[in-house]
Specification:
This protein is an alpha/beta fold. Among the domains are: 93 residues, no CATH class; 167 residues, no CATH class. Helices cover 50% and strands 7% of the residues. The protein contains 19 helices and six strands. Strands 1, 2, 3, 4, 5 and 6 form a six-stranded mixed β-sheet that branches. Helix 1 crosses helix 4. The radius of gyration is 23 Å and the shape is globular. The two termini are 28 Å apart. The structure holds iron/sulfur cluster. The site of iron/sulfur cluster has 12 residues, from helix 17 and helix 19.
């Protein structure tokens, strides 16, 4: 379904990159598409069952391997209530390809803990097998379009062939092109939320994607899993310490020993709440290997983010507050600040003064959520979620306000992907024209739609042609 009939970028994108991919989808999808589905877990993740009838939970899909060997490495998979296993995942169209591709007897495939196949009866491979087709969270054609924006590793930072035609575009034409690309990105995020909400409901979807976004790229999957476990965490209690203890306990993030001193009081309170439940919860507890702590900034430590999540859960009003916020009139200049107020929790005596459960106390309090992360949540989760709720509820005024806020939101923190995009497309790294988060989102969408499907030399890229057609159109 098209939400913006006059979106030239979306139309071009669908005719170009996405159409090529869609042609490949039926009757047999390409393996790369299956790998993308796995990477992003576009599956109904609850109720997955192997072909021999065992429930299976994907605690981490693993890291995509673009070299020889199994498709994903270091995945974390749990069968029934067994201890989660760390190993590889291989994805094939059918089980017969295990032999057909020479995996049998190949020592590199010895570490495969799960064989994922598209469809068909499972031929014995000696590995647990999961059939993907009946577990998709959306129709395959919709997923193909969604994945048209996901691609290969980033090309090198050399100036692209679109740079010259882009520089010939006037500022207004360039801004409008970025705006249309950002519309596509909003729609793409919103359809993913909608796909999950069909199974889990809107509030549960909000928890899962909000916690996942707080995990950043390194800890997206363990945080998403804890989001999936929020109904368990909420059972019978709305006390913020109990909720924090449950989230940290389920995440395996509570240190065993407490040190003497007043700062260990909080850890003791958490253990007092958790020890009674730890045994019953043990099949759900994430392995420590799920987490990647290397290189994480102190303020972004998962335990700190989970304390914030526990505060929102205890309050129980996040969804209602976001909806109220959308209905309230807020000047553009106060958007970010007004959202930070919506997201504020009551003062946390421990986490406002610590980066981790073991770190020394600092003198002045630090906010649990900075403005950069609030912008990230707004653009990647809250506004797409509110927008899609308005669309599905046919509430035209809520939809309009969600769009206005999405396009007016001030730009977020710069990052290496944006810098690379500016270097390749604009021929420089200056962020001067990217005043809004939507302009940044538009740039990201273009690099996903085009750069990621081409190479460092821009071979077979249709974007320069699109820009030229766009320039002619805008000059009339
Ligand atoms: S691949 Fe296409 S969009 Fe990317 S820099 Fe090259 S011409 Fe531009």
């Amino acid at each position: 379904m098209r939400f913006w009939p006059d979106n030239f970028y979306e139309e071009w994108r669908e005719r170009g990159v996405a159409t090529e991919l869609l042609h490949d989808v039926e009757p047999i999808p390409p393996e790369r598409l299956l790998q993308q589905i796995w990477l992003h877990q576009r599956l109904r993740r609850e109720g997955l069952v192997t072909t021999d009838g065992r429930p299976v939970r994907i605690l981490h899909p693993g890291f995509w391997n673009h070299e020889s060997g199994p498709d994903f490495q270091k995945a974390i998979i749990q069968f029934g209530t067994d201890t989660p296993q760390v190993g590889a995942v291989e994805i094939d169209l059918s089980s017969s390809l295990w032999k057909g591709h020479g995996h049998e007897g190949n020592p590199r495939y010895g570490e495969v803990v799960l064989h994922v196949i598209w469809e068909g009866a499972s031929k014995p491979t000696g590995r647990p097998t999961l059939i993907m087709k009946p577990a998709l969270d959306a129709p395959l054609g919709e997923l193909a379009l969604w994945f048209a924006a996901e691609g290969l590793p980033k090309p090198h930072a050399i100036i692209g062939q679109c740079s010259a035609p882009l520089q010939n575009l006037g500022v207004a034409a360039l801004n409008e092109l970025l705006r249309q690309a950002a519309q596509v990105r909003l729609h793409r995020k919103a359809t993913q939320l909608q796909a999950r909400a069909r199974d889990a409901g809107w509030e549960q979807t909000l928890w899962e994607f909000t916690l996942a976004a707080l995990g950043y790229k390194h800890n997206h999957w363990p945080m998403r899993r804890l989001g999936e476990l929020t109904p368990w965490a909420l059972a019978g209690s709305a006390d913020s310490v109990i909720l924090e203890a449950r989230l940290l306990g389920l995440g395996n993030l509570l240190p065993r020993e407490t040190k003497a001193g007043s700062d260990s009081l909080h850890l003791r309170r958490l253990w007092d709440a958790w020890w009674r439940e730890a045994d019953a919860a043990s099949p759900l507890v994430l392995p420590r290997a799920s987490w990647c702590m290397a290189g994480i900034r102190p303020a972004n430590q998962p335990a700190r983010r989970l304390a914030l999540g526990a505060g929102w859960l205890a309050d129980g009003q996040l969804m209602a507050r976001l909806e109220d916020w959308l209905l309230r009139s807020v000047p553009v200049s106060a958007l970010a600040e007004s959202l930070e107020e919506v997201l504020a929790i009551s003062a946390h005596e421990f986490w406002e003064f610590h980066w981790t459960l073991r770190s020394p106390r600092f003198a002045t309090p630090q906010p649990l959520l900075g403005s950069a992360r609030a912008t990230d949540l707004a653009v990647n989760v809250f506004l797409p979620w509110l927008w899609m709720r308005a669309v599905t509820g046919q509430n035209a005024s809520m939809r309009r306000v969600a769009e206005e806020r999405y396009f007016a939101w001030p730009s977020g923190q710069d990052n290496s992907t944006l810098k690379l995009g500016r270097q390749r497309l604009m021929g420089h790294t200056s962020s001067k024209i990217f005043h809004t988060a939507a302009a940044q989102q538009g740039l990201l969408q273009i690099t996903r739609d085009f750069c990621d499907h081409s190479n460092a030399l821009c071979q077979n890229c249709h974007f320069p042609e699109l820009v030229k057609v766009w320039q002619v159109r805008m000059s009339h």
